[in-house]
Amino acid sequence: MSPHEDPSEFPTGDPADRTVTFDRPDGFTIPVERPVRRERATTEPPADQPLARPTGMRIGSPVGLRADPPPDPPADSSDDPLTGSQTGSSAERSAGSRAGSSEGRRAGQPADPRPDSSADPVTGSPAGPSAGSVTGSFAEPYASSSAEPYAGSSAEQRTDPSTGQSSDPDVDRAGAEVRPGRVRGWFVSMGVVLLTLTALPAIALALPNTSMNGLVPARDALGLDNAGMPGLIRAAGLALPALLLAVPVFAVASRRFSPRLVLLFGLALLLGGIGAARFAETVPAIAGGRVLQGLGAGAVLPAVLVLVMERQSRFLAVIWAGTLAASLIVAMPLALHATPLPGGGAPPADWRVAFAPYPGIAAAALAAAFLCVLLRSRSRLSSARRAERGQLLLPAVPAAGFAFLAVVTTYGWSPGAQLVVGGIAMTALLGLAMVGSRDTATGSPLGCAVVMVTTGLLTYPLAGPLSGLANASATMRGATDPRLHLVPFAAAALAALLGAIATVRMSRDAARGAVLSGHGLAIVAVLVCLATDTASDPWLLLAPLVPLGAGLGMALAASLRDAGVGAALFGLTLGFPAVLVGQLLVLALQAGQIQRLRPENGAQQLYGLTAGFRIWVIVAGVLTVLLVAACVRVTAARERAPRSEGRRRAGNLLA
Predict the structure, then answer these.
(1) 278, exposed or middle or buried, with CB in 10 Å at 0-12, 13-18, 19+?
(2) Closest C-alpha to 252, from 370, 432, 387
């Protein structure tokens, strides 16, 4: 093929404005108009000015080419590395990255048959043969590099070749970014926030066993004698053991299937259990309703956590952590307020309220769940591997054992035997937390599993008996406003939420300090509780409860920093067994004091319960110190692992 000039059509003075023709072997001659060469700009564009290219021009196509371009390959669904939005076809991206590859070629100089090894400075993709232009050896020299020096550098400049208008769905015709994906993401995040603020309190309110407040009316309504009273109390306390069985199973289901389906299924079980308990007429119906509440709560918990982790937002994780700690602190006071003790100045409530208080919160959680289903977005989490699923199911066997023993100990076991069971269970929980923290799938840099155990041990088992003592003391004193004892617990819940929010902007080192500081505040709260007669005045409850809530909320939120979804779910499977262990220990200690004192009136009984609670506070303080040591050991071990791996690799390279 030999190019020759046609001087009769264009002047020969300017070699850039001439038409050249190419003789093909089959006898046809193809005229090709040579593009006009422009001078390269000597000044760089301003920093705030977008890098534009002319509209209606395809990347890598020769200017003035008369032949029809080949069809585009299918569009690639990958995201633009600069704008985060979806790019066009792969041919456009590859051609745009090669724009400017023939910048310095002379007119009429043949193309270099060797592939260009340079990479585009904007996109970083290697240069190569043009994919969007006419194939052949004569097409490459005429790709206009000066017309689009920064092709593909911004989402605002992607245009449709046929219309000359923007083809980016996130850009309007005027060139301004509207980003509908970001707006939708904001609505999805708000839906998850609403779900967190309603579902977690509904789960916590399914735990309290306040049947003692409505024991006499329930006995009379069900036609029971004194021998049937233990069965009624046992049936009312089945929600927490059922939750322990459900959390590991539904944690795996939330990672294996859609968490939204698991969420709707769990809320259906929870509302079904609330309805069954509210209309129960027999003890088995009460037991069935409480079991359904526990199973539903155990399904909703991991599903909500997975939805929070899907958004990959530190703020959402912080809200979840603060709401969980606050809900566990305020659950028992709210339940006691719904079922007041007789003679306390408040009108008696229906005895069934003790088994399902505040059903409206669960209904609000169902509405928020439907909102999350409607605003469904693509999950940003990778699918769960078999190792992660196995680690999440690891606590299922000991949790089932804890639940079984918790039910069996109600059949006349002595307080000493219950304390032995509680001690063994606590040792097993601590061992599981330390072993799981070393695993790559369930471990976290800041010991999330250990902090979950601390939160479960010190929130509900500490605030629940304290609210019961404050409520009984206020009733015996004839308090005019029985709602006054709710104020300190509400302040503690608010402190937990604020303490969690305070960790949003923390660095890794600051978050590690926040975990230890949170445990320190919990120890301070324990010491203040021992030094204060909290049953004498409800306002004195502010002294231990506020630092307790702030410390646990801060520690839990900080431990979730840089924690994967597997680590968060593994910690969740250990947090509620810690709640059951704490309940078992405090009830055993209080029962032991009652047996020792043998009270004859209400005042002596209140004194025995208070003495048992104070012993439990001492035990909780000792356990908190052990958990701090475990947390320090776990985080130090995970910090040493990357360093030792780096030294090993460096040694291999030097060798």
Answers:
(1) middle
(2) 387
Yes or no: say if 624 and 616 are a contact pair by the CB < 8 Å rule.
no
Tell me the DSSP string of 86-123: B--BHHHHHHHHTTTTTTTPPTTPPPPSSPP--B-TTT
Question: How far is Cα 124 from Cα 462, in angstroms, rounded to an integer?
Answer: 58
Distance CA 334, CA 367 (A): 22
Could you tell me which of 211, 335, 229, 235 has the C-alpha nearest to residue 290?
235
Which residue intervals of 28-173 are DSSP H helices?
90-97
Q: What is the mean pLDDT of the chain?
A: 74
Among 150, 222, 475, 201, CA closest to 324? 201
Q: Is 631 in contact with 639 (CB distance < 8 Å)?
A: no
DSSP sequence for 266-305:
HHHHHHHHHHHHHT--SHHHHHHHHHHHHHHHHHHHHHHH
Instruction: Look at residue 201 in the predicted model and tell me its pLDDT.
Output: 95
List all residues 6 or more positions away from 602 whose beta carbon is below 8 Å from its beta carbon.
Answer: 472, 476
Tell me the pLDDT tens digit for each residue of 610-619: 899 999 999 9
- Return the DSSP state at 171: B
Distance, in Å, from the CA atom of 86 to the CA atom of 513, rounded to the nearest integer, reads 40
Asked if residue 116 lies in contact with residue 98, where contact means CB atoms within 8 angstroms, the answer is yes
Helices (H), 210-258: 215-222, 229-236, 239-256
pLDDT digits (tens, 9 = 90+) for 211-269: 667 777 788 788 887 777 888 888 888 999 999 999 999 999 998 888 999 999 999 99
DSSP per position, 538-555: GGGGHHHHHHHHHHHHHH
How far does CA 110 lie from the centroid of its chain? 58
pLDDT one-digit tens code per residue, 397-433: 888 888 888 888 888 888 899 999 999 999 999 998 8
Q: Are 582 and 403 in contact (CB under 8 A)?
A: no
CA–CA separation, 20 and 26 (whole Å):
18
CB 564 within 8 A of CB 444: yes
User: Token pair of 13, please?
Assistant: 């003075």
H or E, element range at 437: helix 415-437
Contacts of 515 (CB under 8 A, 6+ apart): 446, 447, 451, 555, 558, 559, 631, 635
Element (H, E) at 521: helix 508-531
| Burial class for 94, CB neighbours closer than 10 Å (0-12, 13-18, 19+) | buried
Token duo for residue 504: 């949003």
Strand partners, 62: 143
Confidence of residue 46 (pLDDT cuts 50, 70, 90): low
How are the residues of the chain apportioned to helix, strand and coil, as percentages rounded to the nearest 5? 60, 5, 35
CB-based contact 201:323 (threshold 8 Å) = yes
d(CA 624, CA 630): 10
pTM: 0.71
